[in-house]
Design goal:
By secondary structure, this protein is α/β, with parallel strands linked by helices. The protein has helices spanning 2-37, 40-56, 83-91, 127-142, 232-307, 309-313, 330-343, 371-390, and strands spanning 69-75, 100-104, 115-117, 146-156, 204-212, 320-325, 346-352, 358-361, 366-368. It has a five-stranded mixed sheet with strand order 3-2-1-4-5. A four-stranded mixed sheet has the order 7-6-8-9, with helices on one face. α2 packs antiparallel against α5 (232-307) and α4 (127-142) packs antiparallel against α5 (232-307). The two termini are 53 Å apart.
Length: 394
C-alpha cells in the first residue's frame, strides 16, 4: 500500500511535468511570432518588386535553375519530444537526389549531412542564425556554385505558405497530409491570425519548396514601368539579398510553429497516458485499502469470538435473534453468521442500520458484541478509575 502511494505521487509529478511542457510549447510560439510577423508587409512589397524585375529580366541567371549541384536544407529540431516529426521529415528525402544536404537542428541528423547547424530551433527561434546560413548559400548561388536551393520543413496546415508551390517535385517527396487534431494554433502562419488559446485546431505536413531561384508568379505585364534610380540588374541583386534575409525566417517560423504543435501534442498524449495509469493505480489502492479494512474487521470478530467462548457455552439453546450491522461488508457478514450458528441456536438474522458488530438477543438476555458496546465498557472503566484516583483528595 505504501509502494502504491509512492508510485501515485511519482505519476502525479510526472503528469505536472508534461502539462508544463505543453504550456511552454504554446508560449514559445507566442514569443517567436511578433519578431517575424512585423516584417511581413515589407516582404509582400518585396515580392511585388521581385515580380516586376522578373518581367523585365526573365532570362537573368538569378531567376533560372542551373545544372550545378543542388542543395537541400532540412529543418529539424533542437527540442525534446520532437524526434517523431523529424523522422517523418527525413523519410521524404528518398529519391530527391540532392548533392549537398544541410541539417538545421540536432535531432535525427541524417548520416549523409554535409553540414549541421544547431541551436536555431531550440528554446528560442534564432532567426539570425538562419539568415546567416541562407546568406552564405545565396552567395554561392550567385557565383554559380549552386544550381538551386531547396528547403524541406514542417508546415502548419492553417493557411498557405508564403512560398507558392509552382514546381512538381518527385512523387517520393510528396505525401499525404499528416493530420493532427489536437488544439493549438489558429489562422495562417503569416496572415495576421495566431495562437489565441489551447482551444484552436491545428495540423501539419512535410513540405518541400524551392527557395532559390525564387518561385515568381508573373502577375505583372511587360509594359508596366518600374521606376528605379539604379539599373535593374543592380536592383535585382539587392532585392534578392533582401528576399533571402526575410524569406528564410518566414519558413523557419512556420517550421518552429509545427515543432511546438507536435511537442504540445506529444506532451499532452503522455500526460493523458499518465492520467490513465493514475486512475488504475488509485483503483488498486482503494481495493487494497478495502481489503485491509476487511481483514481488520475479521480480526476483531475472531478476537470477540475467542474472548466470549466461555459465555457461548453457557447460552441456552432456546434460540436467539442475531442482529448484524449493515456496515459490515457482505462477505464478512456471511462469515460471521456462519461462525455464530456453529456455537448457538439462531432462529432469526436481522441486519441493523448503524451497528458495527453483532448482538444476540433472546426474550430475557442480550449479548452485545458490537464495537460500540466495548468502547462504552472501556469508557466506564476509565471513568471509574479516574474517580477512584480523585477520591482521596477530598
Amino acid at each position: 500500500m505504501r509502494k502504491l502511494s509512492e508510485k501515485i505521487k511519482a505519476y502525479e509529478l510526472l503528469g505536472e511535468v508534461f502539462n508544463v511542457i505543453s504550456v511552454i510549447s504554446l508560449n514559445r510560439f507566442r514569443r517567436a511570432k511578433p519578431s517575424v510577423i512585423r516584417k511581413l508587409p515589407y516582404f509582400r512589397r518585396l515580392e511585388e518588386v521581385l515580380e516586376h524585375l522578373y518581367v523585365l529580366l526573365p532570362s537573368h541567371p538569378l531567376f533560372r535553375e542551373r545544372k550545378a549541384r543542388k542543395a537541400l536544407v532540412v529543418f529539424l529540431s533542437d527540442l525534446s519530444f520532437t524526434r517523431g516529426l523529424c523522422g517523418k521529415l527525413l523519410k521524404r528525402l528518398e529519391g530527391f537526389g540532392a548533392k549537398e544536404l544541410i541539417a538545421v537542428g540536432s535531432k535525427c541528423v541524417p548520416k549523409d549531412a554535409t553540414n549541421v547547424v544547431e541551436g536555431v530551433f531550440g528554446k528560442v527561434f534564432l532567426e539570425s542564425e538562419l539568415v546567416r546560413l541562407f546568406g552564405k548559400l545565396f552567395e554561392r548561388y550567385e557565383r554559380g556554385e549552386l544550381g538551386s536551393v531547396w528547403v524541406l520543413y514542417a508546415s502548419p496546415l492553417l493557411g498557405s505558405s508564403f512560398v507558392e508551390r509552382s514546381y512538381s517535385p518527385p512523387k517520393a517527396v510528396i505525401s499525404q497530409k499528416e493530420e493532427r487534431r489536437e488544439r493549438f494554433y489558429s489562422g495562417a502562419s503569416l496572415g495576421g491570425a495566431g495562437a489565441v488559446s489551447l482551444g484552436e485546431a491545428g495540423s501539419w505536413e512535410p513540405r518541400l519548396v524551392r527557395f532559390l531561384p525564387p518561385s515568381v508568379r508573373g502577375r505583372y505585364r511587360g509594359d508596366e514601368v518600374l521606376n528605379t534610380e539604379v539599373p535593374e540588374e543592380v536592383l535585382l541583386g539587392e532585392v534578392m539579398r533582401l528576399y533571402v534575409q526575410l524569406g528564410a525566417p518566414f519558413l523557419g517560423f512556420e517550421h518552429y510553429t509545427a515543432l511546438n504543435l507536435y511537442r504540445f501534442r506529444s506532451a499532452k498524449r503522455m500526460r493523458d497516458n499518465v492520467l490513465r495509469a493514475l486512475k488504475r493505480l488509485r483503483v488498486l489502492l482503494n481495493k487494497e485499502r478495502q481489503e485491509r479494512i476487511n481483514r481488520e474487521l475479521q480480526d476483531i470478530v475472531f478476537a470477540l469470538l475467542a474472548f466470549e467462548e466461555e459465555r457461548f457455552r453457557d447460552l441456552k439453546q432456546e434460540g436467539f435473534v442475531l442482529e448484524v450491522g449493515s456496515v459490515v461488508e457482505p462477505r464478512l457478514r456471511e462469515f460471521l453468521i456462519g461462525e455464530v450458528r456453529k456455537r448457538v441456536s439462531v432462529r432469526e438474522v436481522r441486519v441493523v442500520e448503524g451497528l458495527l458488530g453483532f448482538r444476540l438477543v433472546s426474550q430475557n438476555e442480550v449479548y452485545d458484541f458490537s464495537l460500540e458496546h466495548y468502547l462504552e465498557e472501556l469508557k466506564r472503566s476509565l471513568l471509574s478509575g479516574v474517580l477512584s484516583l480523585r477520591a482521596p483528595s477530598r
